[in-house]
Design a protein that fits this description.
Order of helices and strands: EEEEHEHHH
Largest sheet: 5 strands, antiparallel
Helix content: 25-40%
Strand content: 25-35%
Number of strands: 5
Radius of gyration: 15 Å
Length: 121
């Protein structure tokens, strides 16, 4: 099933991912993961997540469960050992594709944004 797919983020850089089975050990790998659903023109990105490579990290499994509720049926993995590069990859793809589920970092920023009513006061 290892199908190579490139996703271009906001910067225009093509990030290379491999489609992996959902039941494989992808959550233990350092890198980035994309949960996606088939769309009429390719893939609709549901969620993008950074993987730290820790052996007993449950966050990726919970993220997959959440993405499946929104229709995700495919898992794409990009191995990356450099933490700075992983963060850059995830941020670039999230900004370029506007996924359905936001990462916790983005949720905090959205909640902290001023509301129009606050600006008028």
């Amino acid at each position: 099933m290892n199908i190579a797919v490139s996703f271009r983020g906001r910067s225009g850089k093509a990030w290379d991912f491999q489609r992996v089975p959902k039941d494989a050990a992808w959550a233990r790998s350092p890198g980035a993961v994309i949960f996606a659903a088939p769309d009429s023109y390719g893939w609709r990105i549901i969620r993008v997540m950074e993987l730290t490579g820790r052996p007993h990290d449950l966050q990726p499994i919970w993220a997959l469960a959440e993405a499946e509720r929104y229709g995700a049926s495919a898992v794409f993995l990009a191995l990356e050992f450099d933490a700075r590069e992983r963060k850059c990859m995830v941020a670039d793809i999230e900004e370029g594709f506007s996924p359905v589920c936001l990462s916790p970092r983005d949720v905090v920023e959205v909640q902290a944004a001023p509301v129009a009513e606050d600006l008028a006061a």
